[in-house]
């Protein structure tokens, strides 16, 4: 029997909502066997939907009056704004009316709400935020990319396991290699957390390949890289800032006077360079270890990003990642 | 009275030793009021020295038979190789026969030896490794860039103070701004370490400007940025790897077929881009908080880098940084 997967999408989340959220949903239902529940101000969402032709039975609108903004204190916002698109969306998941939830809204509110409303999977110490970090030859899956600070070694071991299951089943990489982010290659290097985590990962059933030094992360030497959320978020955000700075410096140098012509010839190659770092291809960062999947889409997500976030949800459900994670832990 | 400053230089340390170490010493004594003691195999060092004309009274050779390699276990190497260029050089500092020591040899051995032989300054919890990280408009001084893991908040406060004194007196930046590396801009963000360190830095006499998010580090928003050595080393090494990867990707894209001509026209601007990231301009990472200065030069240092490392030592001594740090703590 062909049971349809239901994904709730926060229609109001992100800089380009509701235009791009709605378009992403429309594109998704045309490609995938999925029912998308667009959660947000009915009037706004329906106005956007009216622009498109699509199989009507595959999109529903669920009204939510309020919106949580990115500058609100997460816990307060989740508690007070019961009628926000984010809270209503997660309630759908909690009540079994959706299999997964996607939002490009406030990261803090989404993570807090996920824990409070969707809830942790039994046996999971800390759900983990995974982000695809672009590398020379594809990407590496960074867990934790910012959900958990002050971690214990046991958490890191679980991050590795959950990351491995996700990458294998959602991104289709067989027996993914898992490495521990550390400031030295040898086993005895690092701080007390990484030393202890190494011991646990080494004896686990993962395809553990040892420490990865931060210098080697961009070379794509491992499919999954494990660290605490402070280090992971530092890597992720520093990568954004540094890439932007480097490209700015290069652009400013090559558009000076005599080089303008050469620079103009290079518009296309530079566009290809940008593709290496195209976050929209993946569509968001999954928050893994909850009773269902929640995907945090980037604040600047476009329709393609939302469509791909929905695809992650579909693959997650189809592959029964929840069951596989429980088996693994 | 014009008292000459004496700098001991590990003539055997680094990939390009002793050619570049000796040339760096020769260039330094021509420019600065300094006596350089070249420590290493006398025969090798003298053979290099014979290539140059320089004021003979400003360079001395101190024989040391052994060399510590980068693959040796630091503590063992320092303990066993009493006649190595590194140990002999640090002994000169300990005995008052040199004011500072520069080496491009094994980082681990140098840090270990610094603590064991040169020794901590009273009142300093942990000496800190400071590294100039290139930014859009110059550089930011990263403390700690890798000497201390498992830090306490009190250490981070001292890193800020020592970094501030160093940047003000050696790099000539008046009342330098100091920021705490953290994964959120607000005071209450971060892990337990950064939250506690924030409290200490806030009430210190530093020009503390709050948290700096990793995304903003390359924009050069603060003169000194403070973090524990695990995070600092991660930032430093990841920056190296990512810059190299980005430049490789850009190069491979723009040298494809039709773009070759345009790329050829851009050799000079790309050389200018490289200048932004020229570590040789600074000459090495000072290990601050010891009884004297020890500078870790990069393994691939050339003569210019060694000369500039020697300059750091001269400025350090002239400005009495040891006294200023003791006042500050």
UniProtKB/TrEMBL annotation, chains A, B:
Any one Gene Ontology cellular component term annotated for this protein: cytoplasm
Assembly and binders: Homodimer. Probably interacts with PlsY.
Pathway noted in the entry: Lipid metabolism; phospholipid metabolism
The organism's taxonomic lineage, starting at the top: Bacteria, Bacillati, Bacillota, Clostridia, Lachnospirales
Main location: cytoplasm
Catalytic activities: a fatty acyl-[ACP] + phosphate = an acyl phosphate + holo-[ACP]
PANTHER family: FATTY ACID/PHOSPHOLIPID SYNTHESIS PROTEIN PLSX, PHOSPHATE ACYLTRANSFERASE
HAMAP family in UniProt: PlsX
Classification via SUPFAM superfamilies: Isocitrate/Isopropylmalate dehydrogenase-like
EC category name: transferase
Pfam families: FA_synthesis (PF02504)
EC number: 2.3.1.274
Record keywords, A-Z: Acyltransferase, Cytoplasm, Lipid biosynthesis, Lipid metabolism, Phospholipid biosynthesis, Phospholipid metabolism, Transferase
Name used for this protein in its record: Phosphate acyltransferase
Superkingdom of origin: Bacteria
Protein's cellular compartments: Cytoplasm
GO molecular function: phosphate:acyl-[acyl carrier protein] acyltransferase activity
Naturally occurring in which organism (per UniProt): Anaerotignum lactatifermentans DSM 14214
BP GO terms, sorted: fatty acid biosynthetic process; phospholipid biosynthetic process
Family membership noted in the UniProt record: Belongs to the PlsX family.
NCBIfam families documented for this protein: plsX
Function, as annotated: Catalyzes the reversible formation of acyl-phosphate (acyl-PO(4)) from acyl-[acyl-carrier-protein] (acyl-ACP). This enzyme utilizes acyl-ACP as fatty acyl donor, but not acyl-CoA.
Cell division listed as a keyword: no
Keyword Transport carried by entry: no
